[in-house]
Specification:
This protein has about 140 residues and is an alpha+beta fold. Helices cover about 40% and strands about 25% of the residues. It has helices at about 15-30, 35-55, 125-140, and strands spanning about 5-10, 60-65, 70-75, 85-90, 95, 100-105, 110-115. Strands 1, 2, 3, 4, 5, 6 and 7 form a seven-stranded antiparallel β-sheet that branches. Strand 2 (about 60-65) and strand 3 (about 70-75) form a beta hairpin. The two termini are about 20 Å apart.
Length: about 140
């Protein structure tokens, strides 16, 4: 059985809504706190979280070959000619049945954290991606 898979990973709408809801709740708590220092620090933290939830996120293309080589590219709508960078799955990557947290190290040492939920990929592509990531992780052991 081949583990080759190519997937376009978009930012998860559910995760972004959850982040925005959490930030809004923290902001509401900050307004109700009686201590001014706690109120200000909690308010600033919640505003930062809200900004992170509302900013635009990148779409990636993840290619896993049949031998377990992983390539990652920022997916551009107009140009599929961008060459994917070879990356390596790092220890600490998490492969759960409903969530993938992939720590991918580039050749220059930079690490990209790719969060993949079932709504981040096209229907029917999450399970093959999860199986391919597990197989890549098992080859490293």
């Amino acid at each position: 059985m081949s583990i080759a898979v190519t997937v376009v990973v978009r930012p998860s709408v559910r995760l972004r809504l959850l982040q925005a809801g959490f930030a809004a709740c923290a902001l509401a708590v900050a307004v109700l706190l009686p201590a001014p220092f706690l109120s200000i620090s909690c308010g600033l933290a919640s505003l930062a979280a809200l900004c992170c939830a509302l900013r635009s996120a990148k779409t990636h293309r993840l290619d896993i070959s049949g031998v377990g080589q992983i390539r990652l590219a920022v997916y551009l709508l107009s140009a599929d000619s961008t060459t994917p960078a070879k990356v390596e799955m790092q220890p600490g990557s998490t492969c759960w049945p409903w969530l993938l947290l992939l720590r991918l190290r580039h050749g220059d040492g930079a690490v990209t954290l790719l969060v993949v939920l079932p709504d981040s990929v096209a229907p029917g592509q999450f399970r093959p991606l999860a199986l391919a990531c597990r197989a890549c992780a098992a080859k490293k052991l």
